[in-house]
Design goal:
binds 6-O-phosphono-alpha-D-glucopyranose; Nucleotidyltransferase, domain 5; six-stranded mixed beta sheet; Hexokinase, domain 1; binds beta-D-glucopyranose
């Protein structure tokens, strides 16, 4: 509209045309003036109605409501955090659209040092009208040309330049560097751009230009650049307001409130695009005939109605239309008009701002009207200033109503009674108009009294802000690359998992043949799963998991269990064997007393969840401790004897230890009681392991060729021979070296609950040292072993947890983190637990395939009894295990049964079977 008058004559050259009829008298004149200016008066109630209606539209749009289409678009910008102040580097910024018929190129250096600013270098280029209305390619080629013209003048190297593209039009963004233009505004109407990715169009133009290799890292709306550019004062700016040729605002919204984003974590900057607000109910009453005329004659009639009442591209035009009207009414300029006055766009924003200047305004009015070929009288000058004031006051008030709506929306989403917020303001109307900002601020305080708002004028029109976003985008992109590099070894593909499965099959075969193997494949002397005829009361002990339990198991037609949990202090678990077994017997005696069983000698089944070479059902030589146990004088001993000796030491206690079983076997038996197809036991808890029913013919060292026996694989030790080295990461090595059994239980240390938290902790320390997390600040607490519990993974990865809860868990740990950090911690947890579940799945696939081949079956249907805190509590572990088994053992239909009563019940059932079999042999 820059002086694109429909008459096409140059300003001031035109002859005056004056109305023939007589001029109105003074009272009629003032009435005409009042009636005219009154139209621009907006009442507080009208402003509140606009505020309320805009707020309603904003919340509708956030909820993703499609019909009726909300009056404002609320576009996510993928800017998820306000500046850290640590951003640094040199960036090129290209601004297109913020200031109408000009584009600006800047060279911005960010020092990363709070308060240390390097003045950006910039150059402005006027965009020819025909380019603004021509083909899109022409516009982007023009932009690329300006870029290289600017860079030619800068002492910079031509490679690896990073550019932030400030594109001030409504766009659907699908990433920090992907943005599709919805519609042009503000005098632009290039063809072939709407619906296109403007970053790609710029990249193509830069490539066509071929002068520089420039990486377009981010595309930003000018309001976002303004918000991000404000100096981080007491609090970062979380709202960006621009009133230049157009007008718009952005603010930091909770991501979970933005329906289109399937993200319920962190915050995201939303570009409101309030220029398109047009709720007839709210706006209708304040729209004047001049607004309708302006809209009708604009490039985009019916669109951007709100913007056309506020934006600098339109204020001058509104004033012109009012002046022309008053002149025609004979109230102004003696009823004379001039071709320039009747030419669209002949009064610019600058003119209006100058004419309103309290000190030089009157003189400027004279000069400007003379330039328009008019000869204003003194009263004309005053009236013209009133007209300017009326138009601009209304614009500032309407803008305030819109801003008040944004503040209310922010208050709602933060669930805060009172809101303290900093608003960054930018644009020539804010910068140059003498009263716009004061009217705006005054009206905001009126409409949003519960908000304590500080207005921070942007220092360089958002160029720095765009560089900040580009720096953040570049930093996030760099961090993302480092995060991906760090987590890549945890992302196991099909071939790697199939290799683990094949490795495990080989180790199983060697272990069964009694050859050296990291899988000991220990016979358990459990030959049959329960057949339901078992009966009686049994005592059971369950040692080796998170809790030590003593159970009374009553087997009738069903199974009743009474149990008590006792703790095993670390001092006992790592003290002397005698101490440990005396502690166990103390617990049994305490339980018997509580259950009124004292003096009774019930058959006892002992779930002992450590690798034991069993010589019989009630004889198990402990091969080595695992899972943080290290009681002395036990390894190499028969633990049943150790228990019996402790019983003996504690006179007056009668116990009949019948069976010792591994927790995998107890779990298989316990689930087998409900589902006879359950022939595999799996534990994924503190430790991990599996057992299954193997053919006796395949078991060297166990007499008999027919029938089956349950094999305790002790797969926790898989890979202790180095066969998993290709998968082991530096973090696994750190966890292993810091463990009390370095070099041992390598498979377990990649899978089980005792170690996953530690793997995550080591990865977080590594990412912190790379500066990717916690701004590179090493956090003392994170240096503490076992501070990051595995249960945090289960909590953090649960779908229902919004990021703020993730943050809460981590903040409880004393980790000061941003939402980007929290998102990365989440990804680390996901990668570590996913690998664990997949490795576990590869192990189960090896076992079910072994059973299928054992039985020469095309298809095998089998159930797996599972227990263990990690498997049970982690939100995705079990489904990932099942998916991996389906992928690696497609000819097996595997049902996973979560054991309800733990393996204590299984131990009792093994004891019951043993007693039943013993009964049979006795008769
Ligand atoms: C259940 C079983 C125990 C087993 C444990 C493993 O509690 O009854 O025998 O050792 O699960 O899981 P955890 O997570 O406790 O190590
Ligand atoms: C555009 C917005 C922009 C505003 C201020 C409006 O016309 O739609 O994207 O932020 O002008 O430049
Ligand atoms: C032990 C196994 C046990 C597993 C699960 C491992 O550390 O060696 O015997 O089954 O943990 O508790």
């Amino acid at each position: 509209m820059d002086s694109i008058g429909s008459s096409g004559l140059r300003q001031g050259e035109e002859a005056l045309s004056c109305s023939e009829e007589g001029l109105p008298g003074p009272s009629e004149s003032s009435e005409l003036v009042q009636e005219c200016l009154q139209q621009f008066k907006v009442t507080r109630a009208q402003l509140q109605q606009i505020q309320a209606s805009l707020l309603g539209s904003m919340e509708q749009a956030l909820r993703g409501q499609a019909s009726p289409a909300p009056a404002v678009r609320m576009l996510p910008t993928y800017v998820g955090s306000t500046p850290h102040g640590t951003e640094q580097g040199d960036f090129v910024v290209l601004e297109l659209g913020a200031t109408g018929a000009s584009l600006r190129v800047l060279w911005v250096t960010l020092t990363g040092i709070e308060g240390h600013r390097v003045e950006p270098r910039s150059q402005e280029f006027v965009i020819p009208q025909e380019v603004m209305l021509g083909a899109g390619q022409q516009l982007f080629d023009f932009a690329a040309h300006c870029l290289s013209e600017f860079l030619d003048a800068q002492p910079v190297n031509k490679q690896g330049l990073q550019l932030g593209f400030s594109f001030s039009f409504p766009c659907h963004q699908t990433g920090l560097d992907r943005s599709t233009l919805i519609s042009w505004t503000k005098g632009f109407r290039c063809s072939g751009v709407e619906g296109q990715d403007v970053v790609q169009l710029l990249r193509d133009a830069i490539r066509r230009q071929g002068a520089y290799s420039i990486d377009v890292v981010a595309v930003v709306n000018d309001t976002v650049g303004t918000m991000m550019g404000c100096e981080p004062g007491v609090r970062p700016c979380e709202v960006g307001l621009v009133v230049d040729t157009g007008t718009n605002a952005c603010y930091m919204e909770e991501a979970r409130h933005v329906a289109v984003l399937d993200e319920d974590r962190g915050r995201v900057c939303i570009s409101v695009e309030w220029g398109s607000f047009s709720d007839d109910g709210a706006l209708g009453p304040v729209l004047t005939t001049f607004d309708h005329t302006l809209d009708h004659e604009s490039l985009n009639p019916g669109a951007q109605r709100f913007e056309k009442m506020i934006g600098g591209l339109y204020l001058g035009e509104l004033v012109r239309l009012v002046l022309a009207h008053l002149a025609r009414c004979g109230v102004l300029f003696g009823g004379c008009t001039s071709p320039a006055l009747l030419s669209q766009g002949s009064i610019l924003l600058e003119h209006v701002a100058e004419m309103e200047d309290p000190s030089t305004g009157a003189a400027r009015v004279h000069a400007i009207l003379q330039d328009l070929g008019l000869s204003p009288g003194a009263s004309d000058v005053e009236l013209v200033q009133h007209v300017c004031a009326a138009v601009c006051t209304r614009a500032a008030q309407l803008c305030a109503a819109a801003l008040a709506a944004v503040l209310s929306c922010l208050q709602h989403s933060r669930e805060q009674q009172t809101l303290q917020v900093a608003v960054a303001t930018g644009g020539r109307v804010c910068e140059r108009h003498p009263r716009f900002c004061s009217v705006l601020q005054g009206t905001v305080m009126l409409l949003a009294p519960e908000c304590d708002v500080s207005f921070i004028p942007s220092v360089d029109g958002g160029g720095r802000g765009v560089a900040m976003v580009t720096a953040v985008a570049a930093r996030l992109a760099a961090h993302r690359r480092l995060l991906e590099q760090t987590l890549a070894p945890f992302r196991l593909n099909h071939d790697q998992l199939a290799a683990v499965q094949a490795q495990m099959r080989k180790a199983m075969a060697k272990g069964l043949r009694g050859e050296a193997s990291s899988l000991r494949m220990l016979p358990t002397f459990v030959r049959a799963t329960p057949d339901g005829s078992e009966r009686g009361d049994f005592l059971a002990l369950d040692l080796g998991g998170t809790n030590f339990r003593v159970l009374l198991v009553r087997v009738t037609t069903g199974v009743q269990i009474t149990s008590e949990i006792y703790s095993i202090p670390e001092t006992v678990a790592q003290g002397s064997g005698q101490q440990l077994f005396d502690h166990i017997v103390d617990c049994i005696v305490d339980f018997q007393q509580k259950q009124g069983l004292s003096g009774q000698s019930l058959p006892l089944g002992f779930t002992f969840s450590f690798p034991c070479r069993q010589l019989g059902l009630d004889q198990g030589i402990l091969l080595n401790w695992t899972k943080g146990f290290k009681a002395s004088d036990c390894e190499g001993q028969d633990v049943v004897s150790l228990l019996r000796e402790a019983i003996t030491r504690r006179q007056a206690v009668e116990l009949n230890v019948v069976a010792i079983v591994n927790d995998t076997v107890g779990t298989m038996m316990s689930c087998g009681y409900e589902d006879p197809r359950c022939e595999i036991g799996l534990i994924v808890g503190t430790g991990t392991n599996a057992c299954y029913m193997e053919e006796l013919r395949n078991m060297a060292g166990v007499p008999g060729d027919s029938g089956r026996m349950c094999i305790n694989m002790e797969w926790g030790a898989f890979g202790d021979d180095g066969s998993l080295a290709m998968l082991s990461t530096r973090f696994d090595a750190s966890v292993d070296q810091a463990s009390i059994n370095p070099g041992k239980q390598r498979f377990e240390k990649m899978i089980s609950g005792m170690y996953l938290g530690e793997i995550v902790r080591h990865i977080l320390l590594h990412l912190t040292s790379l500066g990717v997390l916690f701004r590179g600040q090493q956090i003392q607490r994170l240096q503490t072993r076992d501070i990051f519990k595995t249960k945090f993974l289960s909590e953090i990865e649960s779908d229902s947890l919004a990021l703020r809860q993730v943050r809460a868990i981590l903040e409880d740990l004393g980790l000061p983190l941003t939402s980007d950090d929290a998102l990365m911690v989440l990804e680390v947890c996901q990668a570590v637990s996913q690998r664990a579940a997949q490795l576990c799945g590869a192990g189960v696939a090896a076992v079910v395939e072994k059973i299928r081949e054992n039985r020469g079956l095309e298809e095998l249907a089998v159930s797996v009894g599972v227990d263990g805190t990690l498997y049970k509590l982690h939100p995705h572990f079990s489904s990932l295990v099942a998916a991996t088994v389906r992928e690696l053992a497609p000819r097996c239909v595997v049902t996973f049964l979560q054991s309800e009563d733990g393996s204590g019940k299984g131990a009792a059932l093994v004891t019951a079977v043993a007693c039943r079999l013993a009964q049979l042999t006795r008769v």
